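SAMPLE LOG
Freezer: B-3
Tube label: C17
Construct: single chain, 124 aa
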Amino acid sequence: MAKKILIVEDEKLITKSLARLLDKKGYDTVIANTGEEAIQKVASSDFDLIISDIRMPEKDGIETIIEIRALLKKEDKPLIPEILITGYADEEKYKSAIDLKVAGYLYKPFDTEDLMEAIENALK
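STRUCTURE (predicted):
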């Protein structure tokens, strides 16, 4: 059975590219364009991995991950590994991601091999 990955990204081009790549690699992908949409999808379905942009309008990737973790804890479900991606070097966000102990952190534009390696490591 294919691993199910939630892609949380507000940029449509990146979303399409990621989904196409992961679908080709045999993963089942679901897209959320906002943090709130991601939380709703996690509430209604199970995922093996979350790949989230950090910088998004309304609710950023860090806030989204924190709320998803709280939801999973409340529902007594296991945590989902997360990989955060960003196009901006932001020391505060990087420190927050490290404090959250996310499975991976990649800067855009990232190499496909680096992304696949991060996904494989996160899914172990």
